[in-house]
Every structure is written in C-alpha cells, then in structure tokens.
Amino acid sequence: MSAVGERDPAREERNAEPIVAVKQENAQNRALEMEDRILALEARNAELVNRVEAMSDIIARQVLAQQEAPSVVNQVGTAIPVQNVPVGRLPTVSDAIRKRNQELGSEGFDLSAKYTATHNRVARLKIMSYIQDLQTYGISREDLSKKVYTHFDNERTKQRLTPERAAVRKTSNRRNGRRHTKCKRRRGAFARHQTELESCFPGGEALLQVKYMSEEDTDDEYPSGIGKRVVVKKLQWLNEKGKRFFARLDELHPPTPSIGLLRVEGVSNVVLNDDEQQQLKEWVVDQ
Asked: Keyword annotations for this protein (predicted)?
C-alpha cells in the first residue's frame, strides 16, 4: 500500500484505460460519419452528372430532329436523321454512331486523346445512350460498346494518315472490296449449282475464299494517264482445272458488265505457303 501523496502507477493505468477506450470509440465514430458523408456526396454528384447528361441528350435530339436528312423511323415513331447514307440503304448502327458523334461537335470524341480519357468516356456514354434510346437496332450494350470503340479507332487512324498514305489506303480498300464482291458472287453460284459443280470439280469449294480471288486494278490506281482500263491479275499458281472451275462459276453467275472498260490480263504476285499448297494441291500448277 502506497503512502498518502505518493503516485500509484497501477491505479493510474486502471483509470486511464476507460478514457483511452472512449477516445478510440469517438475516433471510430467520426471516421464512420466522414465516410458516410463522402458516400453521400459521391452519390449526389453521380446523380447530378446523370441529370446533365440526360438533359444534353434531350437537347441534342431536338436539334437533330430539326435537321433535313435521310431518316428512318424507330419503334416509337421518332425520326432518326442520318447523313451520308446512300439512297436505298437503311442507316446502320455505325451510321448512327458517326452521325451522333458529328452532332456532338466539341463534346464528341477527341481523337488526340486516349479512348479512356475522361472527355472520351463521357462522349462514349452520350453516343451509347442516344442509340439505345432510339430502340431501333436491337443491339446489346456490349456489342454497341465495341462498335463505338471501332468508330473511334478508325477515325483516329484516318486522322493520323498523311495524304499519300490515305490515298494508298483508299486504293487498297477499293481493291479489297472488289475481291470480296467477286468471292460473294462465286459462292452464290456454287450454292445454287452445288450438285453439278461438286460432280465436275470435287473439292473446289476450298478455292472460294477472298484471298484466292484474282485482283482487278483500274488505271486510276496507277500514276499513268491511260484511260479506263482494268488489269485483271490472274493467280500464277492456279492450274487449268482451277481456271475452268472459276470460269464455270462466272458463266453461272456472270459479273455485272462494266461499260467502256478494257480488261487487260496481268499476273498476281500472291504466293501460297506450304500448308496452303498441300491443302490445294489439286488446284496448284505442278512445280
């Protein structure tokens, strides 16, 4: 037992314990209150952002509806203006994405910034919200998101091209488009006359791929002054049997005649790899 006036460390420690516990509890309560306030502010901020975006979409749609342009009507009777759509073709999702981004102006995609930048994320949400509200295309949100990104990526790629590279790319796209058209036409002929063709040219379906179509280049794709002429680049590895197969397909479904064009035969520089040569050995010229 300690004398009067002397310190008792054990007693002081026992008295301090409740005080420390109260202080810790108060600190925890203050931290929880602060966290609740932050969450409430974040929720309020998100609500305000949604309201602003919704109001922006309403205003933008009103402006779009007043413009004169080719349009279709969605399920609820709202006109969808779409520019630069060829006559006779209905607007696609990609058309709507391009149109919406154009009308957003400075609020649309900033092609100099990353796709994940805040500005572009907001633009993406605006475009997706608008298209989903149209209730026209029946596309999932995931697929729509992919198409919006594809639009951004394509536009950014175009912006970065020099005039020379842009011209080369345009020419390449035209050539590739002609090969796809030819392949589609020949596949259609094969499907309609499959019994005949399989009996005469068994295994010929393996040739019906875009990469095995001959190329057709027009003179405006060369730095020359010669008039309208088409250079048909034949596949140098294709044997006579393969040539007869393609000729028969073209007889069954002839290509659309080109008025005023002179066709000149050329040679394609496309070669087959070892696997392709093995797979198409019946159609390859003997080495």
From this structure: Coiled coil
